[in-house]
Design the sequence.
């Protein structure tokens, strides 16, 4: 069974809500999923998972500093995340307000770790995006993204 | 008087409509604006303008190839665009579908040319984004962006 | 056996040389590799491969227009590349001259296609980079990258 | 007289050394320059400067978390940095190791603030990059970048 960690930083609850929908989608596809706020995740927490999905609100077009801090701290186990599957999502106040670049900032850090990143052919291509609280569209994106990551995790063992 | 070129690639008319709204905003702020499809722009066309604003639909998260071709061809006058003001806009079929990264692809090419790029503190931060045909929100973003570029062009002489 | 396409655009021969070293690394890891200039690749050419690696010189911080044109044209088979493995490499005249952003431009387009992108934990993290003709360092990066893609292709069937 | 802040995060001293060379270039062009480690900069510190140049080592392809924290905290004066000139630089252990994307992460945050970003037509196009301790090449890039920012600051009053 594939095990996935969905972790997020959330102040308003929007990114947290997205995390729940992603976890639900992944579970529906058969994965075992843990859901944790980034504040209760240490670098070592990341080690047992086959896939790691990280969400952040859009803070100046990039992941929030507490998420970046986790990634910076993870340097002590650099190399040990290589080959894991990575994914990202973001919530933002505006269309065009930095939601895509927030996701890409997380994906870049994952590539540096040697992680494996799937894109999305239909929908939010880099990862799910919500404008404010996730609406029906965003919820569907989250659900499908969870499934996509779960399916890839099941294949790549 | 500051002179601005707004150029665009448009198949469906959405990016062209955005270009018109940007031009209108820039004119309202006192600029002389030319509006040209990218097919009728050569590298030499770019030389007399103080500011150049380029729009593209989101094709695979980046500017369309015909826009890229203009930028590639402009290498023959590399250095001569340095110090000009640059801006970019995009239209896309989806939120999260690559609209921001399309704009950033244009801005990166402009930075390589030594151009000067203003961000947008309130609204679409990297440049205006429309999801399909520009709605009221997108039109307002375009209008304000035209003004911002015109005002900066008037200051930077 | 995993089959990989390495395709490239090259005017000076530097990107082509990188392509050869990537292909050699992938073959050493047991993959069947085809090596083709982008001019002889159509969207349909891409379909049978399990992995596609695309190289471009750094033209204004992004892939060259002929490479972008192939990707734009590939929209007609959108969805059919989903799940394939993707990789990218670039050659550039300068450190800090846009080599990383050139690679990322290719990777973004691949993510939009729903392709799967591996990062590199040790070395050139987004894909191999050469400054001018590939030196020993760059050749080693290319070789290892070919291996990495081949190994992932063998696992992800 | 134009006033410029050069601020940096540096653990090994490489980014700090770059900051000194940028400051020297800016001073040579007639600017008044303050040089401060990011730890002694608060959001309010940023307000009086006409230009702000931020340097970071490449931590997972992006600015280090302490630099991101300063930018996140600066949200309380959002809008008040609009129209200021921004620049960025990075040091990294490898070519292709994320130096460009580190710079771009800083530039994106500055664009969200509505700051104005100049590119570099000749040299390190997005901002100066050093591989490990700045060598002669990197020092020259830093020097020229300081001058470029100082000259633009003097023009844009």
Sequence:
């Amino acid at each position: 069974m594939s095990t996935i960690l969905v972790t997020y930083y959330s102040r308003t609850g929007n990114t947290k809500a997205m995390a729940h929908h992603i976890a639900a989608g992944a579970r529906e596809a058969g994965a075992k999923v843990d859901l944790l706020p980034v504040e209760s995740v240490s670098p070592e927490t990341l080690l047992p998972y086959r896939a790691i999905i990280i969400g952040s609100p859009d803070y100046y077009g990039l992941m929030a500093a507490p998420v970046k801090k986790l990634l910076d701290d993870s340097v002590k186990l650099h190399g040990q995340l290589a080959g894991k599957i990575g994914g990202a999502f973001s919530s933002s106040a505006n269309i065009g307000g930095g939601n895509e670049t927030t996701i890409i900032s997380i994906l870049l850090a994952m590539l540096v770790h040697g992680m494996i990143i799937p894109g999305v052919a239909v929908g939010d291509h880099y990862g799910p995006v919500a404008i404010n609280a996730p609406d029906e569209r965003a919820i569907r994106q989250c659900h499908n993204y969870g499934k996509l990551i779960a399916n890839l995790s099941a294949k790549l063992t």
User: Anything to note?
Assistant: Chain B touches chain A at residues 61, 94-101, 104, 123-129, 131, 137, 141 (CB under 8 Å). The beta strands of chain B are 3-8, 32-37, 51-57, 85-92, 116-118, 129-131.
